[in-house]
Amino acid sequence: MSQKPKRSLRYRLDRLSVYGPVLVMAALALGTYWLARSVPSAAQPSVEPIPVDEPDYTITEFATRSYDGTGRLTVELFGDTAKHYPAKDLLVVDRLRMRAVTEDGRIITATANSGTTNGDSSEVQLHGNAVVVQLATATSPRLEFRGEELQVWPDEERVVSDLPVELFRGADRMTGQTLVYDKKQQTTEIDGRVRSTIQPAARP
User: Fold this and answer.
1) How far is C-alpha 117 from the geometric centre of its chain's CA atoms?
2) Which residues form a coiled coil (predicted)?
């Protein structure tokens, strides 16, 4: 009768030796989980995205130059300040001045109260007191375009406007409500209440 309690105690000790490590590991796991839940996670560094309607940088006394694949200077842009908008890779320039050199060497200049240009300056939009001048050459007279809004493609030698414009060709003057000028296609389209003043040709 006295042997049964000893076997029962030994049996319990054997079971404890088998399951003891498992219980200890479970307790450690619960403790680790509780600690992880209790301690706030470290703040992760984040990069704030730039809003699409805000510039990522501003330049004062702005100047930039664009070149073609052969290294030929094509466009120079200047301004009091310039803001770059990365969403569309646009530059918005105050007091914009432009000087472009065409493939055959003609000079085109432009000024405006402000302007917008794409990344390679292949398209320039002029706003407020916009003036575009194509200097005279040995074979063509001086051309001057005036308007509140002018859109220019310097390398393509195109000028477009959906607002009233003035066109001066040498001493001649023409006005209209819209303009599409394409030097390479040798076309000039002025629509809407067109008026012109043509000076008589000089006598030989």
Assistant:
1) 8
2) none
Mean of pLDDT values over 176-193? 94
Residues 29 and 114 in one domain: no
Q: Which domain holds residue 36?
A: 1-40
- How far is residue 104's CA from residue 158's CA, in Å, rounded to a whole number? 15
Question: Is this structure's pTM higher than 0.85?
Answer: no
* Share of residues in the chain with pLDDT > 70 (%): 73
The predicted structure's pLDDT at residue 104: 87
Domain identity same for 167 and 80? yes
- The separation between the first and the last C-alpha atoms of the chain, rounded to the nearest angstrom, is 148
